[in-house]
Amino acid sequence: MVPAPTVAPSTPVPEALRAMIESRLPGVVVRDDRAFTVVPASQVLRVVLPPYVLADPSLGRVWDESSADELVARARGLTVRDLLAALPEGGAAATVDPDATAVEIAAVLSSAHVPLVAVIDRDELVGVVSVNRLAEALLA
């Protein structure tokens, strides 16, 4: 388990991206009251991509690299709430308690289709376990 920042639904998307990058985690944990939602890094990008590119990724070729700056501009006016709304079923509540076993964590990672799980103790985030950390522990 490693420490992880949380973001609120009202957090601007660029700020959430910075938190994810600085923590070097493959996703971000959103805290809304007592609920925790894991948003994978790949899904953070979902909200800034045009719908036609999501429908057919090969259409991303029509965007040259200089036009990619437009994606960043699109993110500036969005919040994490917009990210959650764009996720299938509002995102994954991928959480475990501190006593979770490696198999339990693996099951949550797999069933929620997320790269990390939030470890919650008494309604507080105590850290996260990523797929990489879990694989590292299993192979040790």
SSE blueprint and pairings:
Elements: E1 6-7, H1 13-23, E2 27-32, E3 35-40, H2 41-44, H3 51-55, H4 69-76, H5 80-86, E4 95-96, H6 102-112, E5 116-121, E6 124-130, H7 131-139
Parallel strand pairs: 1-2, 4-5
Antiparallel strand pairs: 2-3, 5-6
Helix pairs in contact: 6-7
Give an overview in words.
- The chain has 140 residues and is of the alpha/beta class.
- It has one domain: CBS-domain, CATH 3.10.580.
- The strands form two sheets. It has a three-stranded mixed beta sheet. The protein has a three-stranded mixed beta sheet with strand order 4-5-6.
- It is globular, with a radius of gyration of 16 Å.
- The two termini are 15 Å apart.
- The mean pLDDT is 89.
Q: What is the count of DSSP helices, taking H or I runs of 4+ residues? A: 7
* First and last CA, distance: 15 Å
CATH architecture: Roll
**What is the domain tally?**
1
Enumerate the spans where pLDDT stays under 50 for 5 or more consecutive residues. Answer: none
Q: Report strand order across the widest sheet.
A: 1-2-3
Major sheet description: 3 strands, mixed
Mean pLDDT: 89
Shape: globular
Element order: H for helix, E for strand: EHEEHHHHEHEEH
Q: Give the CATH class.
A: Alpha Beta
Give the % helix.
Answer: 25-40%
Please name the CATH topology: CBS-domain
Tell me the radius of gyration.
16 Å
Number of strands: 6
**By CATH's scheme, which homologous superfamily applies?**
CBS-domain
